[in-house]
Amino acid sequence: MLSTLIYRSHFADDVPVKALEEMVVKANNNNELYGVTGILLFNGTHFFQLLEGPEEAVLSIYDGICNDPRHHNLVELLRDYAPARRFGNTGMELFDLREYGQESVLQAVLDRGTSKYQLTYNDRALQFLRTFVEAREKENYFEIPPANYWDFVTDDASCAESETTVTDTDAFSFAMQPIIDPFSCQTDSLEAVMQCSYEGSPLEHLSQLAREKIYQADLHSKKAAFALAKKLGIEGQRLSVNLLPMSLVMVPNAVNFLLGEIEAYGLVPEQIVVEITENEVISRIEEVETAIKQLKAAGISLAIDNFGAGYAGLSLLVRFQPDRVKIDHSIIRDVHKSGPKQAIVQAIIKCCSSLEIGVIATGVEKAEEWMWLEAAGIFNFQGDLFAKPKLNGIPAVAWPEKSWLKTIGFTPCSLSSAEHFLFLLRAY
Questions:
Q1: What is the assigned CATH class of domain 2-140?
Q2: 183-216 confidence digits (pLDDT tens)
């Protein structure tokens, strides 16, 4: 099967430009061995490469490219399939954009086409090429430093290491995981993450129950979350709890139950955030909407969890107008290397900014993910990079410290929110 792969990368600053010719010669020889063809564009700073060939061969070539230290910040823009090669005459042809005008290089590229149909920019792959030549997306090229530019240092004083045991007849317990602003070294809120006392995940356990009992178990488990919050003494700290949206309508007086348990454990509605999950089909949307209005009228904030990976998608933003959305970890994972994921995240940020909805990136595990997301405009994060969920306790947070600045006692916690974005971009 004929595969097409397009990527963009940044030429390493310490590599002389004269090395480019040698790179192209080696790439040509290597590509010919694998039956891979394509073109390479270079604008003095960035590479843009289109590879075509058998899928396994293209992926093998790309793996080698990803491990080449002569360039960095590789972003895969497209992975697709085609009936014929667009550029089939050479292993790799270089177009140095510094030697062409925009229109002349675009025509030169089209002239190299080998397809039986004349190449035009109606072709999606060539639209990427044109966008690169015209530098229409350059403001979205976030150049992030390597992961080892940062250390993540646990601050035992950042969160209390309190531990407690909650006695509960249900099959669930809770672990606390913070949502943080890494650069200001502040904890935004704590999420009570449901844990199953048996093997498997909480959702797997709930799915084994009779349908009418699933929602009752989900709702009533929040009593244990509130009890844990009280024993840990979170005081004025915001607390997030997950809730299946249908629990609000399938269980009679669900909203009143939540409000009663919040008060019973010395909490106030204004410090509670209910995160409704997007991974369940909402069959009675009007009733769910009514229940959410009751929650918000009582002072409880609303978040949409797993945003971008569930059933409802953007329609939830229209119906519910949440205070915040939590981008699903499947979109966050390796976002620094994926053009499609970057486009989706940027669209979410722009949409939520227009609606004054806060954005949280969840499941952050790599420094590179955090750095790209921070550069894109997200400031609140949750994930194992900073703190893993702690059963019946609050974990200490690992805050980022610049490796070479740590020796002089500097930490980004001293920066203002306006300054930390510039610091991140200049750190490299």
A1: alpha beta
A2: 899 999 999 998 866 565 666 666 677 777 889 9
